[in-house]
Amino acid sequence: MNVATLLLGCNIGSCESTFVDTLNSFEKNCGKVLSKSSLYRTAPWGYSDQNDFLNQVVIIETALQPSELLKQTCEIESELGRTRMIENGPRTIDIDILFYNDLEVITNDLIIPHPRLHLRKFTLIPLNEIIPNYTHPSLKKTISELLLECEDQLNVYKKEN
């Protein structure tokens, strides 16, 4: 079995409900959910004329290979109403593969570890909550170290229940 770390993002509709549906789809189509971070709210990255995002990091155990996992996550996004119209634009759900075991994967469709995760607090803060001592396979630094070095100025707030 393999361990994959994924980032969920949403800023259209009932994001918390969409995240529950996403986790259920992971269990059905990808593998077992091992852990998940709290929910975090942040201002949008890149295209700023949109609602704040809700983000969560999820770790799953999967028998799928990286390309198969990408295919499944894209299908889940589609099933949950994701349409790609504006780069970094509003979305009902976005699923990014951050890590897959300790592999480095570069294909036309997929780069693992995610190439910009170390630049974004909305990714690093939930990662730091659940795997602070995990060492990034390419950068050879822990998540905690990457967070300390991150220059992203966007505020990331833990969502209260």
Q: Nutshell version of this structure?
A:
This protein has 161 residues and is of the alpha+beta class.
Task: Name the CATH superfamily classification.
Answer: 7,8-Dihydro-6-hydroxymethylpterin-pyrophosphokinase HPPK
Overall shape: it is globular
Number of domains: 1
Number of helices: 4
Strand content: 25-35%
Quote the distance from N terminus to C terminus.
33 Å
Point out poorly predicted stretches. none
Indicate the CATH class: Alpha Beta
What is the H/E order? EHEEEHEEEHHE
Computed structural class: alpha+beta
Mean pLDDT: 90
Q: What are the key terms here?
A:
alpha+beta, 4 helices, two-stranded antiparallel ribbon, 8 strands, 161 residues
Would you mind describing this structure in some detail?
- With 161 residues, the chain is an alpha+beta fold.
- It has a single domain (2-116), classed as Alpha-Beta Plaits (2-Layer Sandwich).
- Helices cover 29% and strands 26% of the residues.
- The chain has four helices and eight strands.
- It has helices at 15-29, 66-79, 121-130, 143-149, and strands at residues 2-10, 31-36, 40-42, 53-62, 94-100, 105-106, 111-112, 156-158.
- Strands 1, 2, 3, 4, 5 and 8 form a six-stranded antiparallel β-sheet that branches. A two-stranded antiparallel ribbon has the order 6-7.
- A hairpin with a 4-residue loop joins strand 6 and strand 7.
- Helix 1 (15-29) packs across helix 2 (66-79) and helix 3 packs antiparallel against helix 4.
- The longest helix has 15 residues, at 15-29.
